[in-house]
Amino acid sequence: xxxxxxxxxxxxxxxxxxRGGPVPVTEAQLKAIFKQCDTNRDGRLSKQELKNFFASxxxxxxxxxxxxxxRHADGNEDGYVSEDELDGLVKYALRCGYTHIVK
Length: 103
Ligand SMILES: [Ca+2]
Ligand SMILES: [Ca+2]
Fold this sequence. Notes:
42% of the residues lie in helices and 4% in strands. The chain is built from four helices and two strands. One calcium ion is lined by residues 74, 76, 78, 80-82, 85.
């Protein structure tokens, strides 16, 4: 008989797959991500800033990602992601597997 008594302890963290599962993101982390993206500091994220952001995450198609995330997160359709729309952006990025945006 084989009993896995300590199975919960024996899983190395490197084996946990990096998929866009539920990753808890705090308000402070959201703000940090926003600041990191908003390079011209006008308080909103343009498509170009999103593109740079995805490029820095290692995306192969940062322009395409920026377009997708804009459509996904831009609730009032002004072409920018504002701070209160950032939640949608982060959720999208996490779902795409960019979990390393949350430090
Ligand atoms: Ca900006
Ligand atoms: Ca908007």
